[in-house]
Amino acid sequence: MAKQKISAAPSVRRLPSYLHIIRQVEREGSEYISGTIIAQELNLEPIQVRKDLSITGIIGKPKKGYPVHALITAIEHFLGWDDIQDAVLVGVGNLGTALMGYQEFQFHGLNLVAAFDMDPRKIGSTVHGVPVLPIESMDIQVKNLGVKLAILTVPSPHAQETADILIKSGVDAIWNFTNVKLKVPDRVLVQKEDLSSGYAMLCVMMQARKLENKNA
Ligand SMILES: NC(=O)c1ccc[n+]([C@@H]2O[C@H](COP(=O)([O-])OP(=O)(O)OC[C@H]3O[C@@H](n4cnc5c(N)ncnc54)[C@H](O)[C@@H]3O)[C@@H](O)[C@H]2O)c1
C-alpha cells in the first residue's frame, strides 16, 4: 500500500472550499479578498485561513488581502487542477452515474474519458457524455488511452479484482468509493472516500447539541 503522507492534509482539504468562495468573489468583480472574509464564510479562524493559503505560496497584502485572480491561479496550480487529468470510472450504478454528472469536475481538471460496467443494458450507452464500455475491454482500453487515474464505484465484493486489472493496465491512482481497503503496490496511490464519516460527525454534533439543550 502506498504510504505517501501529505503533512498539510487538513489544509489541502479546506482549499476547495476557499476556491469556491474566491471564485464567487471574482464573479462579483472584486479584485481582492481578505482572509477574514473567507474565515467568516466558513466559520474558521482568520489565522487558520492565512496558514492554509500560505502553502500555495501566495501572500496577502496588509489591509487589502489577497489578489483574487492570482489566488485562484495559485490554489489551482497547487492542487494540480490547472492540468487536465484523464480518468476512467468503473461501475456505472447509482453512485457512479451521480459522479459522472458532477459538473464541478471540469473545473478540477478531471476529464472522464470512459466508463466501464458489466451490465449489458448499460454497455454501449452514453452517460453524461461519457461512453460506457464492457468491463472485459477495460484492460486494453485503459492501456490504449494511457489513463493513469481511475474512479472505483463497483460493489465492494468486486473492488479488489477490478483494482488489480486497473493497476496491471497502468493506472497509478485510484479514487476508491468502495468500503474495501485495497491492496496495491507501492507505486499506486489510493484515496478512499466514505460519506459515512461526514455523517458520523454530524450525528455526534447533533447528540452534543441535544445534551446542551437538555442541560440548559
Ligand atoms: N464512499 C461512499 O460514501 C459511498 C456511498 C455510496 C456507495 N458507495 C459504494 O459505491 C459502490 C457502488 O454503489 P452503488 O450504490 O452505486 O451500487 P449500484 O449497485 O447502483 O452500482 C454498481 C454498478 O457496478 C456494476 N458492476 C458490478 N460488478 C462489476 C464489475 N465486476 N465490473 C464492472 N462493473 C460492475 C453494476 O452493473 C452497477 O452498474 C459500492 O461499493 C458502495 O458500497 C460508497
Automatic annotation (TrEMBL):
InterPro entries, per the entry: CoA-bd, NAD(P)-bd_dom_sf, Rex_DNA-bd_C_dom, Tscrpt_rep_Rex, WH-like_DNA-bd_sf, WH_DNA-bd_sf
Source taxon at top rank: Bacteria
GO biological process: negative regulation of DNA-templated transcription; response to redox state
Gene Ontology, cellular component aspect: cytoplasm
DNA-binding region: 17-56
Major location category of this protein: cytoplasm
Keywords associated with the record: Cytoplasm, DNA-binding, NAD, Repressor, Transcription, Transcription regulation
Keyword Repressor in annotation: yes
Domain CoA-binding: 80-181
Keyword Thylakoid (UniProt): no
Residues binding NAD(+): G91, V92, G93, N94, L95, G96
Localization terms from the record: Cytoplasm
GO molecular function per UniProt: DNA binding; DNA-binding transcription factor activity
HAMAP family to which the protein is assigned, alphabetical: Rex (MF_01131)
PANTHER family, per database record: REDOX-SENSING TRANSCRIPTIONAL REPRESSOR REX (PTHR35786), REDOX-SENSING TRANSCRIPTIONAL REPRESSOR REX 1 (PTHR35786:SF1)
Subunit structure: Homodimer.
Family, similarity comment: Belongs to the transcriptional regulatory Rex family.
Protein name stated in the entry: Redox-sensing transcriptional repressor Rex
Lineage: Bacteria, Pseudomonadati, Spirochaetota, Spirochaetia, Spirochaetales
